[in-house]
Amino acid sequence: MTETTSGPARGSRAKAGKAAAAAPAAKGLRIERIHTTPGTHPYDEVVWERRDVVMTNWRDGSINFEQRGVEFPDSWSVNAVNIVTSKYFRGAVGSPQRESSLRQLIDRVVMTYRKAGEDHGYFVSPDDAEIFEHELTWALLHQVFSFNSPVWFNVGTAQPQQVSACFILSVDDSMESILDWYKEEGMIFKGGSGAGLNLSRIRSSKELLSSGGNASGPVSFMRGADASAGTIKSGGATRRAAKMVVLDVDHPDVEAFIETKVKEEEKIRALRDAGFDMDLGGDDIASVQYQNANNSVRVNEEFMKAYENGGKFGLRARMTGEVIEEVDAKALFRRLAEAAWACADPGIQYDDVINHWHTTPETGRITASNPCSEYMHLDNSSCNLASLNLMKFLDDDGKGNQRFDAVRFAKVVELVITAMDISISFADFPTQKIGETTRAFRQLGVGYANLGALLMATGHAYDSEGGRAIAGAITSLMTGTSYKRSAELAAVVGPYDGYARNATAHKRVMKQHSDANAVATRMDDLDTPVWAAATEAWQDVLRLGEKNGFRNAQASLLAPTGTIGLMMDCDTTGIEPDLALVKFKKLVGGGSMQIVNNTVPQALHRLGYQQEQIEAIVAHISEHGSVLDAPGLKPEHYEVFDCAMGERSIAPMGHVRMMAATQPFLSGAISKTVNMPESASVEEIEEIYYEGWKLGLKALAIYRDNCKVGQPLSAKKKADEKKAEQAPATAPAAVEKVVEYRPVRRRLPKGRPGITTSFTVGGAEGYMTANSYPDDGLGEVFLKMSKQGSTLAGMMDAFSIAVSVGLQYGVPLETYVSKFTNMRFEPAGLTDDPDVRMAQSIVDYIFRRLALDFLPFETRSALGIHSADERQRHLDTGSYEPAAEEVDVEGLAQSAPRQTEAPKPAAAATPEAEPAAVTPAPKTAHNSTELLEIQLGLNADAPLCFSCGTKMRRAGSCYLCEGCGSTSGCS
After folding, report:
1. Within this chain, do residues 346 and 382 fall inside the same structural domain, yes or no?
2. What is the dihedral of CA 876, 880, 886, 892, to 10 degrees?
3. Pair (130, 177) in one structural domain
4. How far apart, in whole angstroms, are the C-alpha atoms of residue 864 and residue 849?
5. Positive or negative, the Cα torsion across 262, 267, 271, 273?
6. Secondary structure (3-state) at 777
7. Euclidean distance between the first and final Cα of the chain, in Å?
8. Of 356, 379, 408, which closes a domain?
9. Cis bond leading into 73, ω under 30°?
10. Where are the compositionally biased (Low complexity) regions (predicted)?
């Protein structure tokens, strides 16, 4: 793609390293065109259109975000447009300063990169700078790649230009350092990113202080950091901060560390069973600890050998290194697996493998990772990420003949690495130490998305030798090309500052990558040319690295690609397989439809099926959501269409083997959680963790379905007794009794049953007491808000009296509900009621709550008011209506502990009381995860998005919302 040539002398890093000192002082990159045409701007090659972006919360219909008339290419999907507009456009909505076109967004970023590249001597001429600008614009415009989210948030704005999503901190055994940890972590969370660190330098609770008392130990200090993370909303959003806490296996407090989340999970279950709201994001979940971090145990070779041999393993004092306790290695490893089985934590990191591939060991060991475990490098450092859309490089002639365009892929990788390195030259960092380390070592993290889609489209099963071969080849080519470009950059602007000290180790790791590439298995006509290109790239790496050194201490990793994956319209994220064969697609102008993945017909073409057969198979998948028993499909081809979820889901070891196929060709690691079925045993998890070490992975985490309480899954009904206590008589009977030509007031008896509810709406607190007739429904309502004698309290009293008198004169409750729900005024917003999560006003909340407590199911269903249980049931079965006999299941409650739904009314004599007009709600979905649940009758083990209420899906080690692009991780 490029060559170096003499040019103006710029840059000050040429003095770092012998290779740089020997190189000519004046050089620059000459940039080659990949996609663009001379004399034509990329914007002029696409068709632009205006769209309205209106994003609503599907649970209550409230508008989360609205911006009309935004400009995008007509090829961009509705989802991509919505997410980019709501997440990445800068400026206050409705103001003239607000961005309204993708052109403005791309120009804001790309022009900043071009200027910095010119200022720091990256280009040999202004023409090369312009080609760089146009090629970068073209690739972003056509969704070929994307920078990580902080670039879109910050670059080209007046705020600090933070470009990194991943951070690693450090903490020492002193109170000053521990308090610095709290502060630094908080600042990173405030900026919307995540951080990880290793606590193993802190003395254990089994060691003495200089004063003679026992140390607190790292687990106790984790409590303070956890509370801080729970308080600071990440980036000002409603999601929790993302963080990773690592502890070495030889730390004397390792057993307590392993058990931290297990004990809290037991507490959550006990509180849930007692009626507390323990949903993720519920009011009462904040009372439990250690919920804001991913935990990982760092194991070493000595421990794993002791595990294999059934021997003892020593736990060492932090200050002296002496063994203060011996434990049975098998028993400790078993406890690790048991804890992961119970609550998915801790994960595992393999210390010796990580540091075997470390390019800068003379500066310091790698002790920790970022929250999603893909970035692993020095303490107090950061990494900026970018990911390529692999499907953009798959060429298909329409006749089943496919090839992966390795040449074009390599050229785009060179372009992206150049841009990423330029960004470090102007980037801001959350702390001085992180800034110093990152500028000195210039860690980058190029990766990819859509691997799962690529494998299926090319007829490769995810869990197959062929699938792993193509994945390994692409990964090797990507990293080899990245380091090749890094060596070329070193010749132009100098190697990274720490290279001279670490040159031997860095070149050793390059040789390790090259050797792994040489012995990798070649399988077919798709992967073999890619391996050949990768081999050539690694030869250039060794040759140029010896001559020039390297500009970057790290080049590649595989991130979750959550929000940016949606921005690029990717079907799959990171290294993940496809979620399901049938997806949910939003349509321009509103509405949605379910479609069979476009990769399915491509795969069938590749496998040799004729067009008529393909159409029949696709029709079967559309109807059944599965390839099982599809007409004409050979059983031996079923595995090609295996997905992460569904009737033919990929086995856990299939995920581990895919990670192992790509890990030798990555500078960093892989963000991925191995999902396991609820029926998985502790022994199976233990085997997964052991095989991860044997296969050379750097880190591994598992998630057993339904192992956590704080998730909105199938609700376990906890309130049957309260139903009996609170169930009023049916409303139609009351109406029939009192509605006459002249209304007659029917007063309540002296003793009357009632429900008192405390509530919060938009931060305003209040109490509502609803009293009912002993046999005939709601009769009066009392509302208490603010201080006695205040205007608000007086108005609430007057309103209560008016409603109560109306009820006693026979005004049906449903009439009040239909009139007062959806009434908008302040205070409004989030409530503390799991059945009514959002309210547009206090009045809106009050009558939704009364409807849930006193109206029969059919009546309020017609008004669109459902409990959390019923909404979850609708996701599971397609119907809000409960089955005739509903069996309690072990699950995680999304609904409120109390159940106040009235029993269904008996058939009434009058036509008005007939519920025949109310029909069951049709099956609907709000994203692909929910669509899969409807098709297969299962519950995806994922939280609901705090921003829009849609069920999220896994993306690496994090969760991603397809509705609005929010993530639960750091990228």
Report:
1. no
2. 50
3. no
4. 13
5. positive
6. strand
7. 29
8. 356
9. no
10. 1-11, 900-925
Convert the pLDDT of each residue in 284-295 to its tens digit. Answer: 677 777 777 889
Per-residue pLDDT, averaged over 459-467, amounts to 97
Residues 37 and 89 occupy one common structural domain: yes
Nearest to 494 by CA among 22, 163, 123, 31: 22
- Secondary structure string (H, E, C) spanning 790-802: CHHHHHHHHHHHH
The residues facing 214 across adjacent strands are 208
- Structural domain of residue 740, as residue ranges? 720-940
pLDDT at position 376 over 60: yes
In a domain, 673, yes or no: no
Final residue belonging to a domain, choices 566, 591, 625 = 566
* In 279-412, beta strands by DSSP E: 294-299, 312-316, 323-328, 347-350, 381-389, 394-396, 402-404
CA–CA distance from 931 to each of 581, 645, 779 (Å)?
Answer: 11, 12, 42
pLDDT band at residue 953 under the 50/70/90 scheme: confident
In 9-61, alpha helices (H): 18-22
CB 278 within 8 A of CB 284: yes
For residues 657 and 651, what is the distance between their CA atoms, to the nearest angstrom? 10
- Establish if 652 belongs to a structural domain: no
Our measurement of the distance from residue 201's CA atom to the centroid of its chain's CA atoms, rounded to an integer in Å, reads 30
Burial class from Cβ neighbours inside 10 Å (0-12, 13-18, 19+) for residue 884 reads exposed
Q: Could you give the residue numbers annotated as active site? A: 370, 372, 374
Kindly state whether residues 813 and 926 are assigned to the same domain: yes
Distance, in Å, from the CA atom of 539 to the CA atom of 476, rounded to the nearest integer, reads 12
User: Largest Cα–Cα distance of the chain, in whole Å?
Assistant: 104
Q: Is residue 94 part of a domain?
A: yes
Whole-number Å distance between alpha carbons of 167 and 379: 9
What six digits make up the tokens of 597? 């993945």
Length of the chain: 971
CB 258 within 8 A of CB 685: no
467 shares a domain with 530: yes
In Å, what is the CA distance from 281 to each residue of 347, 563, 849? 23, 21, 20
C-alpha distances (whole Å) from 45 to each of 127, 283, 436 are 20, 52, 42
Alpha-carbon span 630 to 620, nearest angstrom:
6
pTM, entire model: 0.76
380 and 349 in a common domain: no
Distance CA 563, CA 959 (A): 10
140 and 280 fall within a common domain = no
Residue type, 61: G
474 part of a folded domain: yes
Evaluate whether 502 touches 361 at the Cβ level (below 8 Å): yes
- Spatial contact of 415 and 134, defined as CB atoms under 8 Å apart: no
Is residue 393 located within the same domain as residue 320? Answer: no
Q: Are 682 and 914 in contact (CB under 8 A)?
A: no
Per-residue pLDDT reduced to its tens digit, 842-880: 898 999 999 898 888 878 877 778 888 887 777 777 666
The amino acid sitting at 330 is K
Phi then psi for residue 304, to 5 deg, are -65, -35
Please state the domain count of the chain.
3
In this structure, the strands spanning 48-56 and 194-198 are: unpaired
Whether the Cβ atoms of residue 346 and residue 230 lie closer than 8 Å to each other: no
- Structure tokens belonging to residue 811: 């005004």
User: The tokens of 532 are what?
Assistant: 């050949």
Beta strands in 370-415 (DSSP E): 381-389, 394-396, 402-404
